[in-house]
Amino acid sequence: MNLKRVRILKEGMETGGAAVYWMQRDQRIHDNWALIYAQKKALERNLPLLVVFNIVPVFLDASIRQYGFMIIGLREIQTGLKKYNIPFHLITGDPVENIPGFLNSVNASILITDFNPLRNVREWKQSLFKKTSIPFHEVDAHNIVPCWIASDKKEFAAYTIRPKINRLLPEYLEDFPPLIRMRNENSVFTSIDFTEMRKTLKINFEVKEADWINPGEEAAHKVLELFINNKLMNYAIDRNNPNLDASSNLSPYLHFGQISAQRIALAVQPFIEYSVSRASFLEELIIRRELADNFCLYNSSYDSFDGFPEWGRNSLNLHRKDKRPYVYSLEEFEAGNTHDRLRPVHRQGQNQC
Fold first, then answer.
1. How are beta strands 6-10 and 136-139 bridged, if at all?
2. CATH 1.25.40.80 occupies which residues in the chain?
């Protein structure tokens, strides 16, 4: 494992207790550099390894459609980790309060977590510094090239970050070592009531859950296999045609970290016979996706008007008072209640991402 993927957020004193992986963004067992690193630390120190996931009752505008997809994946993680003798703990509430309490309850020796460029998650970590005294390490298991290594500034566009990432890919696009079954004989596996946990959520339950797509790591790999076998060949030609089911359908799995972008790239890379489609897909998977993380990491106003480039702000301000024939509320947009006869149609079994 390339240890440049790791950042030490805080030095500290180890206690001799458990190594804890605080899983957040990368919700999978295999091909997970953060979990691999956490296990490495545990084995080096002859410590038990624990994985904890903290569900917050509300996160941005996520509804049960997003939470439901995630929860099914977490249930699969709990079952899968047991095969490696790694206990999985699910807690709910404010992570700034919950994670320190959990660390104390298990006498944690070191804390490892995922990299996430979003402001609220970074604020959680900053708050944790004051409440923990053990070492705190962060691993970028989401990007192939660690975000802070790919660039040390906000990139203007894909064409500015592309050469930087391509130059580093040979160093970072490596295969993953397998996870090892832990030998700790005193592992305690607690039962998790996912039904009761759902009741603690303060989200929109009125929307329909995504019953047309199977969540989880195992399902993600099946979708990847389907894409490679049936769609990759013509991806470059077909991907922009909305009348065709030509996309990879991997977006929700990548979003929740149920599959590694690095694993996808490794799986697609050998298909040199589809060189144009392969290049087109890898551009989206690597360059465009990692550019988005770069934007969030280095632009503190990434989610507001102030985060727009100057030309965008000027243009919007110039036309702010223009008369518009139609004006809709956010709720009307979400429901597709507009004058346009072309309304969004949900097709059973098809991912529109």
1. antiparallel
2. 217-306
Cross-strand partners of 66: none
What CATH number belongs to 7-199?
3.40.50.620
Chunked mean pLDDT (size 10), the chain, 353 residues: 95 92 98 98 95 95 94 96 96 95 95 97 93 96 98 96 98 96 84 91 90 93 97 94 92 97 97 96 97 97 94 95 91 85 53 41
CA distances to 18, 26, 80, 81 from 184, rounded to whole Å, are 11, 24, 17, 13
User: Which residue, 75, 127, 70, 61, is CA-closest to 98?
Assistant: 127
Q: What is the pLDDT of residues 166-190, one digit of tens each?
A: 999 999 999 999 999 999 877 888 8
For 271-289, letters b (16+ CB in 10 Å) and e give: eeebeebbebbbeebbbeb
Strand positions, DSSP E, the chain: 6-10, 19-23, 49-55, 88-92, 110-114, 136-139
**Whole-angstrom distance, CA of residue 42 vs CA of residue 45:** 5
Rg (CA), the chain: 22
Task: Give residue 31's region: left, alpha or beta (phi > 0; psi -120 to 50).
Answer: left
- What residue ranges of the chain are covered by domains with CATH 3.40.50.620? 7-199
Q: What fold characterizes domain 217-306? A: 1.25.40
